[in-house]
Automatic annotation (TrEMBL):
PANTHER family: PROTEIN YJDN, PROTEIN YJDN-RELATED. This is PhnB protein. It comes from Undibacterium pigrum. Residues 6-132 form the Glyoxalase/fosfomycin resistance/dioxygenase domain. The lineage of its organism: Bacteria, Pseudomonadati, Pseudomonadota, Betaproteobacteria, Burkholderiales.
Length: 139
């Protein structure tokens, strides 16, 4: 069994995927627009047929999904979860944190903690909360 996360960006899925591609090296697996649905009845569900009906993208070993859905949200409200990124080392953590912070809001700047050499929390420009941690050394 596998649990995967679907992020509903309320009309901003394509921009979010582009951001994560640049910032985090995301790779698009599939991007299906409403107008391209194999089901003709689905092609008119969204007011904008160019919006994303379903997309999957990979960041590292994790697959995330997104949809613009049929909601008309100016800014999605992501609450009750945080996506965690494990960086290879301090330099990687600084690069990832800076990329996610661009246009976002830092909740906790990167700093040394008792569990890792660097940890920080940021909400990106799309409202998605992230924690960046340097991966623990294996013993």
């Amino acid at each position: 069994m596998q649990v995967e996360t679907i992020l509903a960006f309320g009309g901003h899925s394509e921009a979010a995927i582009q951001f994560y591609t640049t910032a985090l090296g995301a790779e698009v697996i599939i991007m299906l627009r409403w107008k391209d649905s194999p089901d003709p009845a689905m092609r008119t569900v969204s007011a904008d047929p160019d919006k994303i009906m379903h997309a999957s993208f990979r960041i590292g070993n994790t697959i995330l999904m997104t949809t613009d859905g049929i909601e008309n949200l100016d800014q999605p409200d992501f609450k009750g979860f945080t996506l965690n990124l494990e960086a290879r080392d301090d330099a990687d953590a600084q690069r990832l944190f800076a990329a996610l912070s661009d246009g976002g809001k830092v909740q906790m700047p990167l700093a040394k903690t008792f569990w890792t050499s660097l940890s920080g929390m940021v909400t990106d420009r799309f409202g998605v909360p992230w924690m960046v941690n340097v991966a623990a050394e294996e013993k």
